[in-house]
Amino acid sequence: MTDKRLIKVDDIRKTADERKCPVEKALFYITEFLAGPMCGKCFPCSMGSYEARAVLNNMTDGKAAEEDLFKLRRIASGMLIGSMCKKGKDTGRFILRWIDTAGFAGHMEGICPERTCSAYIEYTIVTAKCTMCGECLTACKYGAIYGERRRAFISGYRPFEIRRTKCVKCGECVPACPEKAIVVVDAKVKEAETVAT
């Protein structure tokens, strides 16, 4: 079993940078930092890391508040200035590196520009592309897709749809569709369309 304190901040940063969404990058980084290399000896780093994780969790969960960017900037700046070691300063620097990107701004408006944060997206079936083969129905383990497979010489099918209340947004239906009829859309846009109809 490896000692989590031996995990290097550089390794955490490299893995975090592989994520598309900057908010998810920052959340992954701070979570891994708390689980491993953070020693907890200085207040700006230890308290700042826990506070930053709480704010970033709100952002990825679709609960971002207007003041969250200000809070996060204050926390990260405090870590950069007040942390006693390079690890804490690097953590503050990593958050500040991404905070002014469109990804963070989008989360404040209820949209994940990268469409990776599940709270901000919906999966939907484009009926015009769907051939009713039922591959998505087979791929969905959660019973979130309903509709009827096409059968020869029978008409009056109920088209395939994704139940928003049952969909866990795992994305397994997307590669299963041979027609690429399942797409990811912004939940905010989908909600506006639903209200309009």
Main attributes of the structure:
two-stranded antiparallel ribbon, mainly alpha, de novo design (two linked rop proteins), Alpha-Beta Plaits, 9 helices, elongated, 197 residues
Describe this structure in words.
The chain is mostly helical. It folds into 2 domains: 4-108, de novo design (two linked rop proteins), CATH 1.20.1440; 118-196, Alpha-Beta Plaits (2-Layer Sandwich), CATH 3.30.70.20. It has 9 helices and 4 strands, in the order ααααααβαββαβα. It has a two-stranded antiparallel sheet. Strands 2-3 form a two-stranded antiparallel ribbon. Helix 2 packs across helix 3, helix 2 packs antiparallel against helix 5 and helix 3 (43-60) packs parallel to helix 5 (86-98). The longest helix has 18 residues, at 43-60. The termini are far apart. The model has no long low-confidence stretch (mean pLDDT 89).
